[in-house]
Amino acid sequence: MRNDKAECQCCKKMMVPRVVMERSIYVDGVQVGGEKPLKSICPFCLSEEWNGMPRKSGLARLRRDAILGLRAISLELTIIGGIALFFAVMAIYRFVFVGFN
Ligand SMILES: [Zn+2]
């Protein structure tokens, strides 16, 4: 086993940083994202700045937020698209079974 314990700069405990993996989503059956380490955090205080590294620049943070936001929007569009398709199919069924009787 590799000894990769480090002292957290926030709570001063010896710990092994926990890697947080990027969540993946499915858009039309295609996996988007995931399997990528997003960040590592202290398991005790859950701080991203456990190694005392300066915060990411605002631009990088903004860019990451924008990417995550776009992914959330595309997920919502998939759900809305699915609901719209459901109602469209229901409308067609109504037309076929009610419209001709
Ligand atoms: Zn900590």
Structure description:
The protein is an alpha+beta fold and 101 residues long. It has 2 domains: 1-55, no CATH class; 56-101. 40% of the residues lie in helices and 19% in strands. It is built from 1 helix and 6 strands; from the N terminus they run E-E-E-E-E-E-H. Strand 1 (6-7) and strand 2 (14-15) form a beta hairpin. The chain starts with 5 loop residues before the first strand and ends with a helix. Bound molecules: zinc ion (ZN). Zinc ion binds next to loops.
Q: How far from one another are the termini?
A: 74 Å
Overall structural domain count: 2
- Rg value: 23 Å
Class of secondary structure makeup: alpha+beta
Main sheet record: 2 strands, antiparallel
Oligomer: single chain
Count, helices: 1
Number of beta strands: 6
Written as H for each helix and E for each strand, in order along the chain, the element string is EEEEEEH
Order of strands in the sheet with most strands: 1-2
Q: What ranges have pLDDT less than 50 throughout 5 or more consecutive residues?
A: none
Which percent band covers the strand fraction?
A: 15-25%
Name the overall outline.
Answer: elongated
**What small-molecule ligands were found?**
zinc ion
- Indicate the percent of residues in helices: 25-40%
Summed over residues and divided by their number, the pLDDT gives a mean of: 82
